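Entry:
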Amino acid sequence: MDDYFNIDEWQNWVDKSFHMFNGIIEGGRIGFLLEGFDDSMILLTIGVNNVDVSLVNGLADVNLDKSHADIVFKVYPSDVEDLLEDYDFEIFNELLEKEYIRLYNLLDVEELDYNGYEHFLSRLGFYINGGPYCGI
């Protein structure tokens, strides 16, 4: 895959794995940063019955905070193609376990719980109340 930021490819992945985002409140935002591409972020914005994908540019000298996203995954570009064919997050989970994907929360734990991330994060092996968590 030559274009790691192909919005159509990301939207296809989100549409086919929509069930994984159930429970996150409307307006929830999940970012994907790609290692070596500090200026851009793929942003998933949760809607009522959909998830929209957009590209945020101009991040080179920005310290990310909750105004940008609720949580952010940092991914190696070499893994993007496999991730975008992984609709049940099996490869995603393997890469998280191997720490090839890093997870950062930009909201505090209470806000993540309130905004419906508990179920989503638990599917990825992270737990808000007890057990392993984001390490953030």
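Residues 131-136 have pLDDT under 50 and may be disordered.
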